Amino acid sequence: MNTQTAKLSTGVTLEYLLDGPPEAPVLCFVHGLGSNLRQFLTQAEHFASAHRVLLLSLRGHGGSSAPNPPTPEAYTPRVLAQDVQALLAHLGIEALHYVGNSLGGLVGYELLELGQPRLLSLTTFGTTAELHSSWLTYWAVVGSIHMLGVKGVATLIGRTASQDRAVGAQLQEMYRSATKDALLLIPRHIAEYDYTATISNTDAPLLLIQGALDKEINAALASTLTILHAAPHGRVVPIENAGHFANMEQPEVFNRILETFLEGGADERTEE
Question: Which end of the chain is more exposed for a tag (fewer CB within 10 A), N or C?
Answer without folding.
Answer: N
